[in-house]
Give the backbone structure.
Amino acid sequence: MSSPNPGIQVLSWLVAILVPVALVLTAVRLLLTPVFVQFEYRTPNFPPDPYGFTRQDRLYWSQIALNYLLNDQGISYLGDLRFPDGNAPYNPRELQHMADVKTVVQAALKVWIGSLVGLALLGVWAWRADWLAGFRHGLSRGGWLTVLLVGAVILFVLVGFGVFFVFFHDIFFAPGTWTFAYSDTLIRLFPQRFWRDTFLVLGVLAGGVGLALGYIFQR
């Protein structure tokens, strides 16, 4: 029995590493849509805004915030906004955080596209160079890696979301730049419940596809 080709083994592991990246970031992109925001605001017992935003208010202002994260506009896109009473929705601290979030989101979307392109190119290479078995094994292994990764995330979210939330933000943002008053617009639009549910839905989406890949392409 011949030993596996080391080069194919490396390529197969590259596929496996790209799969969780592609699946998690695909789930992220799906959640960056009005459909998810509308769904979340309508979930049972979603906390009302004690400072007066109605559901329609939240839908309106959250859509503008979402548009900002995905478009090519500067922070003035949010900074020039005004409530009907003439007050600015966002204070300077919130605007800086949204600019930071946009930087992270735009970088993540580039990584997402890169991971999908990488998997597509590796798939074509596997087909042309006759290592489809290694490619399929990489997809399966990547699927199981995704399940393990998102399973750990879901566990942390369910057991101690507050700690996880702080840890997550400290990875991507400077400490102290992402905390706000309950009366600030960002908290009124996106309370902690919103983010807890976001991580859970992300885990279910990415983990579900990962589980399917693990079973379908296993040897």
Q: What stands out?
A: The chain is about 75% helix and 0% strand.
